[in-house]
Specification:
71% of the residues lie in helices and 0% in strands. By secondary structure, it is mainly α.
């Protein structure tokens, strides 16, 4: 489970969430949680995982408290269903941090950064290609919309954020 597998998992999670509406829809949180949970299970079963240190425990405890707080906001929210939709998004962050902690030093940060860089770059390039592709015969068969709902990530600011993450990681 050395570097290449960790990089491939980071690539798959980044690209999967990017192509699943940018990870914004509540259904994509569930798929992200399943992916992160599968990666954690793989690490525990095959590699035995590693015990978190004090800082890692503080990180996981903080994210667990944030997840609980987000779920509890259902009690005082003006829109309780929306509050419950947001809790799984924060749980994906907790799960991803848990996988990184379980991986410990088995996976180098360069492989994780490379996987995230490759996934973000591919999503950005695909989105830009769909937005800038010529429109043959009035409609390109590959794109459904060129506006804010363009695939894979419809929100222009989120594509810019993915591009900025890719630039920083490169």
């Amino acid at each position: 489970l050395g570097g290449p597998v960790g990089g491939a998992l980071a690539f798959a999670l980044t690209l999967g969430l990017a192509f699943d509406g940018g990870g914004y829809a509540p259904a994509s949180f569930d798929r992200g949680l399943v992916g992160v949970g599968a990666a954690a299970l793989l690490l525990v079963v095959l590699a035995g995982g590693s015990r978190p240190g004090r800082l890692s425990t503080a990180l996981l405890a903080g994210l667990a408290l944030l997840t609980a707080w987000t779920a509890l906001s259902w009690l005082w929210s003006d829109s309780p269903p929306i509050a419950l939709d947001e809790a799984p998004r924060v749980a994906v962050y907790l799960g991803a941090a848990g996988v990184v902690v379980l991986a410990g030093r088995r996976v180098s940060m360069s492989w994780l950064a490379g996987g995230i860089l490759a996934g973000a770059s591919l999503a950005v390039c695909w989105n830009l290609w769909l937005r800038l592709a010529p429109d043959w015969a009035g409609r390109s068969p590959l794109r459904s919309d060129i506006g804010q709902l363009a695939d894979p990530v419809g929100y222009a600011n989120s594509i810019a954020l993915l591009a900025a993450i890719a630039l920083v990681l490169s």
